[in-house]
Amino acid sequence: MKYVAIIIVFGIILIFWMMKRPSPSTNIKNQGSLSEAPRYLEALLKSQDSDSYVIITHEASGHFLQFSPGENIIQMDFPVITKKQRDKSDVIKESCSKLGLVLKVTNGTDGSMFYDWDMSGTPEEMCKIIIQVFSEAFGTKPEDNFVFEHDEYLII
Q1: Rounded to an integer, what distance in angstroms lies between the CA atom of residue 46 and that of residue 155?
Q2: Residues 71-83: b if buried by 16+ CB within 10 A, e if exposed
Q3: CA atoms of 44 and 126, how far apart (whole Å)
Q4: CATH number, domain at 120?
Q5: Which of 29, 69, 81, 105 is close enough to 44 for a disulfide, judged by CB 3.0 to 4.6 Å?
Q6: Distance of CA 111 to the CA centre of its chain
């Protein structure tokens, strides 16, 4: 009888523990032109969560840039993992350098390489940089269709 009571207590504790676990993060995707970018950048700047992110993807080509918040900055990341990304790495480095952005090379936990640039200024000023980088590195136009992906905790 004692063991049955212990099993029941542990069962109840397990049920409550499972109910309190946070749900896995949900990615939210919206479409629009690059004119939509400032509102996502503004949300990143206001975010209290250092794990927040926005990924802007050119829908037709699949080329993308990743953005994360920092201390009064937004970090723009370009992964250099696939052949397609490696083929664009020199062009994107040159484009960012012309804009006065300073390159930092980082490695992910799995050894993958990322190019990082810190952007400061208003969301509108950062958007101009993003438009130019997408245009020069990937041949896109600001009015093209883009996908804006972000975590569920980022308030847009």
Answers
A1: 9
A2: eebbbbbbbbeee
A3: 12
A4: 3.30.1460
A5: 69
A6: 19
